[in-house]
């Protein structure tokens, strides 16, 4: 019969192995939790809402309630069944869902705008594939009751102009309650949603209908901004809107030659900046851009499509901000725009998401450390001091 002391000695190696295994599990779990969950809180926590410049600051409480806090993002490109590998879909959708839900929880915006290309394969999707993509989108980008979600159409959602059909446009409008020329007014601020794919200017049925709505809305806004005039019969029966100058929201940017003048860490790579943009493909045509500027005289234009950030000035006074892609599939450093907006002013701030290269570096470093720990535990890795001691002993023997 074995004594209790001998049993304890023989069971000690097993306990050590279990303890080491437990430590490894804790180490791996900690790395996964940090890289796939906590890092989003750590990075987005550093983002702050910009303060609106100017204005009357006599009543800070009144001003804070009149400021609309908006998050603007673009080009999520949810992968479909044709080109999307399941592992790529799983990874990208997890990243975007965690980023979006973390931003909602930390920043608590009043409204979120997504500027098109919600899906990557909307232009090809079968009814079943479309329903599956919509279901996944609604899960990833679900918002609390206190936050409104507004989505603008992009070319990957309904196709470029030559691919666009009434069926594709209607199914997008049905899901997202979107129409070109739709006006969204919140806290006295006018936002105009534009189907930029329909701004081809070739007189197609969808293009004519879209432009007609925009022209009618332009007339309504112009009448609302005019001072009351009994002699102006054109505005006598027009329903008045808040007199605030509108903000244009669209997928294609207004016309610009290239991204050569763009700067910032979210701008296009240097080798891409000087590539000329193609009208009606990379940007709106000059004619369509002038129409929108003439019709609405916006105080701000927000667009996506290029996957890179850019700030340009049109007609010397109208700023346009191109929002970078929200997907790591398109950028190493995705991001979004935070806007503090009032009826007369606005202030924008960029918020960047975790760099994927840094996440991968963290995983590689953790993997290397894990290998070293395992080799050291099983005494398969010679400690440096033992190796040095052996060299010294050999030298003395000689």
UniProtKB/TrEMBL annotation:
<comment type="function">
    <text>Metallophosphoesterase that catalyzes the removal of a side-chain ethanolamine-phosphate (EtNP) from the second mannose of the GPI-anchor protein intermediate. Participates in the glycan remodeling steps of GPI-anchor maturation to allow an efficient transport of GPI-anchor proteins from the endoplasmic reticulum to the Golgi.</text>
</comment>
<dbReference type="GO" id="GO:0046872">
    <property type="term" value="F:metal ion binding"/>
</dbReference>
<keyword id="KW-0931">ER-Golgi transport</keyword>
<dbReference type="Pfam" id="PF00149">
    <property type="entry name" value="Metallophos"/>
</dbReference>
<keyword id="KW-0464">Manganese</keyword>
<keyword id="KW-0812">Transmembrane</keyword>
<keyword id="KW-1133">Transmembrane helix</keyword>
<dbReference type="InterPro" id="IPR029052">
    <property type="entry name" value="Metallo-depent_PP-like"/>
</dbReference>
<protein>
    <recommendedName>
        <fullName>Metallophosphoesterase 1</fullName>
    </recommendedName>
</protein>
<keyword id="KW-0472">Membrane</keyword>
<feature type="transmembrane region" description="Helical">
    <location>
        <begin position="360"/>
        <end position="381"/>
    </location>
</feature>
<keyword id="KW-0337">GPI-anchor biosynthesis</keyword>
<dbReference type="GO" id="GO:0008081">
    <property type="term" value="F:phosphoric diester hydrolase activity"/>
</dbReference>
<dbReference type="InterPro" id="IPR033308">
    <property type="entry name" value="PGAP5/Cdc1/Ted1"/>
</dbReference>
<dbReference type="GO" id="GO:0006506">
    <property type="term" value="P:GPI anchor biosynthetic process"/>
</dbReference>
<dbReference type="GO" id="GO:0006888">
    <property type="term" value="P:endoplasmic reticulum to Golgi vesicle-mediated transport"/>
</dbReference>
<dbReference type="GO" id="GO:0033116">
    <property type="term" value="C:endoplasmic reticulum-Golgi intermediate compartment membrane"/>
</dbReference>
<feature type="transmembrane region" description="Helical">
    <location>
        <begin position="20"/>
        <end position="43"/>
    </location>
</feature>
<comment type="similarity">
    <text>Belongs to the metallophosphoesterase superfamily. MPPE1 family.</text>
</comment>
<keyword id="KW-0813">Transport</keyword>
<dbReference type="InterPro" id="IPR039541">
    <property type="entry name" value="MPP_MPPE1"/>
</dbReference>
<feature type="domain" description="Calcineurin-like phosphoesterase">
    <location>
        <begin position="69"/>
        <end position="308"/>
    </location>
</feature>
<keyword id="KW-0378">Hydrolase</keyword>
<keyword id="KW-0479">Metal-binding</keyword>
<dbReference type="GO" id="GO:0012505">
    <property type="term" value="C:endomembrane system"/>
</dbReference>
<dbReference type="InterPro" id="IPR004843">
    <property type="entry name" value="Calcineurin-like_PHP"/>
</dbReference>
């Amino acid at each position: 019969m074995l004594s209790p002391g001998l049993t304890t000695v023989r069971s000690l190696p097993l306990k050590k192995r279990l303890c080491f295994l437990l430590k490894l599990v804790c180490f791996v779990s900690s790395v996964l939790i940090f890289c796939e969950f906590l890092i989003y809180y750590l990075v987005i926590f550093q983002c702050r809402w910009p303060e609106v410049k100017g204005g009357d600051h006599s009543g800070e409480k009144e001003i804070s309630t009149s400021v609309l806090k908006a998050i603007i993002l673009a080009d999520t490109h949810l992968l479909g069944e044709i080109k999307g590998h399941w592992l790529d879909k799983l990874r990208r959708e997890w990243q975007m869902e965690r980023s979006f839900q973390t931003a909602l929880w930390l920043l608590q915006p009043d409204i979120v705008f997504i500027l098109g290309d919600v899906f990557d394969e909307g232009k090809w999707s079968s009814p079943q594939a479309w329903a599956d993509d919509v279901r996944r989108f609604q899960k990833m980008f679900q918002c609390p009751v206190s936050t409104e979600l507004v989505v603008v159409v992009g070319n990957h959602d309904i196709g470029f102009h030559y691919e666009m059909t009434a069926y594709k446009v209607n199914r997008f409008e049905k899901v997202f309650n979107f129409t070109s020329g739709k006006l969204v007014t919140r806290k006295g601020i006018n936002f105009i949603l534009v189907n930029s794919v329909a701004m081809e200017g070739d007189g197609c049925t969808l293009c004519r209908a879209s432009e007609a709505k925009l022209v009618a809305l332009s007339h309504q806004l112009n009448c609302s901004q005019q001072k009351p005039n009994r002699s102006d019969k054109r505005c006598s029966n027009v329903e008045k809107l808040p007199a605030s100058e509108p903000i244009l929201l669209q997928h294609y940017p207004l016309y610009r030659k290239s991204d050569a003048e763009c700067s910032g860490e979210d701008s296009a790579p240097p080798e891409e900046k000087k590539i000329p943009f193609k009208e009606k493909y990379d940007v709106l045509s000059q004619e369509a851009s002038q129409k929108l500027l003439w019709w609405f005289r916006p105080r701000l234009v927000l667009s996506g499509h290029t996957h890179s950030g850019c700030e340009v000035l049109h007609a010397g006074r109208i700023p346009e901000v191109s929002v970078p892609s929200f997907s790591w599939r398109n950028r190493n450093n995705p991001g979004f725009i935070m806007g503090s907006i009032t009826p007369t002013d606005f202030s924008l701030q960029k918020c960047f998401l975790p760099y994927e290269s840094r996440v991968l570096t963290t995983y590689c470093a953790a993997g290397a450390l894990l290998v070293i720990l395992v080799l050291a535990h099983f005494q398969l890795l010679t400690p440096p001091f033992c190796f040095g001691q052996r060299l010294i002993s050999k030298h003395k023997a000689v």
